[in-house]
Amino acid sequence: MPDLYRSLLRPLLFRLDPERAHHWTLAGLRTASLLGLDALLAPGAPDTPVEVMGLRFPNRLGLAAGLDKSAACIAGFGAMGFGHVEVGTITPRPQPGNPKPRLFRLRERGAVINRMGFNNPGIEAALDNVARSRRGFCGVLGINIGKNKDTPNERAVDDYLTGLQRAYPAADYIAVNVSSPNTAGLRDLQDPTAAGNLLRRLKAEQGGLAEQTGKRVPLAVKIAPDMDDHQIAELAALFGEIGMDGVIATNTTVARHAVSGLRHADEAGGLSGAPLEARATEVIAALRSALDPRVPIIGVGGISDAAGARAALAAGADLVQIYTGFIYRGPTLVREILRALA
User: Fold this and answer.
1) What is the C-alpha to C-alpha distance for residues 233 and 229, in angstroms, rounded to an integer?
2) 1 falls in which pLDDT band (50, 70, 90)?
3) N or C terminus: which one in the chain shows less Cβ crowding within 10 Å?
4) Domain range spanning residue 176?
5) Residues identified as active-site
6) Of 106, 253, 88, 103, which is closest to residue 173 (Cα–Cα)?
7) Domain count of the fold of the chain
8) What's the CA gap between 54 and 206, in Å, rounded?
9) At a CB cut-off of 8 Å and minimum separation 6, what does 296 contact?
10) 277-302, pLDDT tens digit by residue?
11) Do residues 322 and 2 make contact, with C-beta atoms less than 8 angstroms apart?
12) Residue 300: CATH number of its domain
């Protein structure tokens, strides 16, 4: 089967500003879903179910947060074969994000730099989108939550509690994003003291919501790749003590040594894509060696082919996610990974 994305669609999309191309892609996917054409994207790989965080995933491959920020294309991505789709990051109140331009391609390395800044419609509108766009989706839905830009860290827990409370009925799992480099001061919430205070409050609220609803929604935390092994070990001990249901490793990186000298390499923001793969795999391995073995890891960062997915799993991940690799390779990458893992 010819790779129509690589030969036809990507050249057209890459002529556009990256953010406009992103919006056009999502609009096209929504239209395909409405017309019932998204079935044409089916990967043709058998399901290989796995249980992680007490949930049954159709396969080990998921879509990382950041691509479907508004939760508008869940079923469309599911039709491509993703076993889980993580939407967001979603904040309590709508926010436009950082000034444009804020998304840059580094084509030579299959990479992207973004400083989007949690642009999203807010939790209420996002949940309306979830109700519409997940119809027909048979996979696992993750909702990634964060704090609004103008909420000081001293009150960040209020925003995360709001996100947890509102997203809980609709989500299969909830991801706590404390690791984006594009909201000033957010990564300070990865400090063990700050993280402990935040996550203990969220775990207590999770318990209360489980009692009220009769439904237990796992709670995962997403960490950055820009930490040394000591910092990773500190957080791993904390996550085990608190009883986190999962850890997502990793978010984008602020390091630039892998793309030094390239156009856009000095843009502020988080770097994702192929240059992040080696570091993300190292973090997964370090985390796995330090983390309670009962706590699963979702590996994400730079996976651009089946070999990258297998490497993340071999390092200790239980599930993997893709984002930038999907931008460069489209549905072909989904098929390749699913077939390799099957």
Assistant:
1) 6
2) very low
3) N
4) 4-341
5) 180
6) 88
7) 1
8) 15
9) 52, 53, 245, 246, 247, 318, 319
10) 999 999 999 999 999 999 999 999 99
11) no
12) 3.20.20.70
